[in-house]
Design goal:
The structure is a homodimer.
Chain A (H helix, E strand, L loop, with lengths): L5 E8 L2 E8 L2 E5 L1 E3 L1 E2 L9 H6 L5 E3 L1 H6 L3 H6 L3 H5 L5 E3 L3 H7 L1 E5 L4 E4 L6 E4 L1 H11 L3 E3 L11 H21 L8 E6 L5 H14 L3 E4 L8 H11 L9 E3 L5 H9 L4 E3 L2 H7 L2 E4 L2 E4 L20 H4 L2 H9 L3 H27 L3 H14 L6
Helix pairs in contact in A: 6-7, 7-8, 8-9, 10-14, 10-15, 11-14, 13-14, 14-15
Chain lengths: ~375, ~375
C-alpha cells in the first residue's frame, strides 16, 4: 500500500533543514540536488553514473518531452522512469518556464498558454489541466503546477498579473491532480519576482490552497544573488515547516549553500552538466576552466582528494586536450565530475546540519573556494 | 626482462588463423579488432567501457596526436597509455594515411611528406625517421612504417611509384626503429593498390627487409570488396606464417569475416564508433538505423540476447528519441554497443577457429545478418 507523499523534517540547524521524503520510486534525503534530464537523459552521463554520483532524484522537462517524443508515447512505453532507465524518483516541471524561454509566438490568456514548437513549428495549447495530465502520463513522482514565470526586471503590474494568474492556475492544477496515483505529490510555485509583498501574498495563497510542497520560482532569471536570497528569506517563514521547499533552476555551488542556509530543501539546475560540456569543472577549490592555456602541459589531476575517480585518473593536460579537440569524452568526464561535486556538496551540507555544524561547513567550504585552484597559484 | 615481440600461431582452420602476441602492455588474442582512439580517446566511450567490450588493443593516430597535443607533450606527460588511461597495448599508425585524407597542401618527395595542418595551417614535415620518433614518443607497442597510400582507382605508374617509395621508407623506418625499447614491434605495410603483381613485389621486398608483422594497406579506399579480398589472397601466401597480418582501416563485419577467412589477424576501423554516432547499431541480425521511423514507438530492445546490457535495457523507441534529439547519450550507447558487437564477432571467430568450425561460424553469422532485423520483418 503506497503511503501518501510525506516530508519528514529530521533536524534543523539555524534555518537550515535536514529531512527526507518518500516517493513511489524511493526516498530522497534533503537538502537534495536534482540533475536535469531535459530530453529523457542527463546530458552526456549514463543513468548508472548519475546514480553513482549520489543523485537520488532527477528533473524531467515537460516542455521538451511533450514535443518529443510526446507524453502519450512515453506513457505507452511504460513511463519516463522506464523510458530513460532511471528507477529512482523523478520530478517534472510544468513546461511553463521553457515555453517562456524556448518557444515561438507564445500567447497567454486565462485559459492556457499557446505556443509554437521550437522544433517544427507545430502549435500547442498548454492548460493547467493538460500540464498535470502530461506530467502524470510521464509518471512523475512530483508534479509541478503550471505558472507564469517572468524574466526580471519586470514591472509591478506585470508581476502582480503573473502572480494572480499563477494562483488561479494553481487551484486548477490541484483539481486536475486528484486523479494522480497515491504517493505522488503536487507542488505549488511561489511567484512575485523581486517584490516582497507579492512573494508573501503568493506564498500565503498557495498555502491556503494546500500543496505537498512549495517551490520558489521566477528566480535565477537575471537578478543579483542578494535579491534571490532576500526573496527566499521573505518566503520561507510563510511556508509550513513540514513541507519541502524547492528553489527552481538554482544554481551555483554558492547559491546552494546560501539557499540551504535559508531553509531550502531541493534544487535543480543544468549548470553542472552544461558548464561541464563547456569545459568547466567544479572543484573544492572553485571552478576550473580546463580550456585555459595554463593547463596545457599540467600533469596534475583536477583534485586527487575528490571522490570521483576521473578527478585523479586524468591529468589537467588531458582534460584540456579533450576540450580543445571537442571530444565527446571531455563532455562526459566533466559532466560526471560536476554532478559528483554537486552531490558531495549536498552530502556535506546534510551531514553538517545533522551534526549541528552547518555554519562551520559553510565557512570552510567558502574558504576552500576562495583559496582557488592549484593551477592558478 | 621484456621479451622480444613475438606472435604465436596456435591454430589454423583452412586459411583462418588463431594466435596471440605479447607486448610490453599485455597479450592480444588474434584475430583481433582494434578500436580507434583518434585523438587520445575512443570517441564517446570511456576506456573502462572499451576494455569491457573485450578490446585488448587500441589504435592511436599519429597525424592527429602530432598536431595536438604533440608527441613531445604526450611523452612529457608519461606517454599515450597514461595520457588516455588505457593500460593495454596500443598500435599507432604512421600518419601517412591522414596526411593524404585530411591535410592541406600535401607535398611528397623522396625525403618526406610536407603538409599544412588542417587545424591551424602550420607546416609540418614528416620523414620516415620522424614518424618512428613520434610513435616511440607516444609509447606505441606496435609502430607502423611511413608509407604512401593512394586512393583507388590509381594508374599503374602511380601505384608503382608509391610502392617503390614506400619500400625505401620501410628500410629507413627499420633503421630508425633500432632505438625502440625491447618488446616493441615495427610493422611494414604492403602497398600496390589493386595490382596483384605490385602487391606481391611489395610484400616480398618487405619480407626481405624483415618486420615483426605485416600490414596490408591502401585498401578500403574506394574499391569493391572482391578486389580487396583478391588482394589479401594474393598477399597472404607471400607473408611468413609466423608473423601477424594486419588489414588496415577495415571494415564492415562482413569484411572482417571474409578477411579472417583469408588469413588476416588484425583490424582497425572507425566504423563501430562513427556509425554509432550517426545512429547505426550493428547487431547479430545486421545493421539497424535507429533513426528510422519504424522504431519511433517500438518498445522492443535492440537484441535481448546480446551481451551488451544497453541492447536489452533500452527500447528502440528510446534510442530513436536520443538520435532524433541529437543527445550525446545516444552516441555513447550506440558506440559502446557497436564496439561490443565487433568484439563479440571477433571472439566468435577465435572460438570457431579453435574448434575447427570457422566455416560453420561464418555461414551461420551470415545467415543471421541475412535474416535481417526484427523491426523490418
Amino acid at each position: 500500500m503506497t503511503q501518501p507523499f510525506a516530508f519528514t523534517l529530521t533536524k534543523t540547524n539555524g534555518t537550515a533543514r535536514r529531512g527526507h521524503f518518500d516517493t513511489p520510486h524511493g526516498r530522497v534525503e534533503t537538502p537534495a540536488f536534482m540533475p536535469v534530464g531535459t530530453q529523457g537523459t542527463v546530458k552526456a552521463v549514463a543513468p548508472e553514473e548519475v546514480a553513482e554520483s549520489g543523485a537520488q532524484i532527477l528533473l524531467g522537462n515537460t516542455y521538451h518531452l511533450m514535443l518529443r517524443p510526446g507524453a502519450e508515447r512515453v506513457a505507452a512505453l511504460g513511463g519516463l522512469h522506464k523510458f530513460m532507465n532511471w528507477p529512482g524518483p523523478i520530478l517534472t516541471d510544468s513546461g511553463g518556464f521553457q515555453v517562456m524561454s524556448l518557444s515561438q509566438l507564445r500567447k497567454l490568456d486565462e485559459n492556457a498558454v499557446t505556443f509554437r514548437s521550437h522544433l517544427d513549428g507545430t502549435m500547442y495549447e498548454l492548460t493547467p489541466e493538460r500540464s498535470i495530465e502530461i506530467q502524470l502520463l510521464l509518471g512523475a513522482d512530483i508534479v509541478m503546477q503550471l505558472d507564469e514565470c517572468l524574466r526580471l526586471p519586470a514591472s509591478h503590474a506585470d508581476l502582480e498579473k503573473a502572480v494572480q494568474l499563477s494562483l488561479r492556475w494553481a487551484a486548477r492544477c490541484k483539481r486536475a491532480f486528484e486523479k494522480a496515483p497515491p504517493g505522488h505529490a503536487l507542488f505549488g510555485i511561489v511567484q512575485g519576482g523581486d517584490d516582497k509583498a507579492l512573494r508573501v501574498q503568493s506564498a500565503q495563497a498557495l498555502v491556503d490552497i494546500g500543496f505537498h510542497g512549495y517551490a520558489v520560482g521566477g528566480l535565477a532569471v537575471g537578478e543579483p544573488q542578494d535579491v534571490m536570497l532576500a526573496m527566499i528569506e521573505t518566503v520561507a517563514p510563510v511556508l509550513p515547516a513540514e513541507r519541502p521547499r524547492y528553489l527552481m533552476g538554482v544554481g551555483t555551488p554558492d547559491d546552494l549553500l546560501e539557499a540551504v542556509a535559508r531553509g531550502i530543501d531541493m534544487f535543480d539546475c543544468v549548470m553542472p552538466t552544461r558548464n561541464g560540456r563547456h569545459g568547466m569543472a567544479f572543484t573544492r577549490f572553485g571552478p576550473v576552466n580546463v580550456g585555459n592555456a595554463r593547463h596545457v602541459a599540467d600533469p596534475r589531476p583536477l583534485d586527487e582528494q575528490s571522490n570521483h575517480p576521473a578527478t585523479h585518473t586524468y591529468s589537467r593536460a588531458y582534460l584540456h586536450h579533450l576540450h580543445k579537440a571537442n571530444e565527446i569524452f571531455g563532455a562526459m568526464l566533466l559532466s560526471s565530475i560536476n554532478l559528483a561535486y554537486y552531490q558531495s556538496l549536498m552530502a556535506g551540507m546534510r551531514a553538517s546540519i545533522e551534526a549541528g555544524r552547518f555554519d562551520d561547513f559553510r565557512r570552510t567550504t567558502k574558504e576552500n573556494w576562495a583559496r582557488g585552484d592549484i593551477a592558478a597559484l
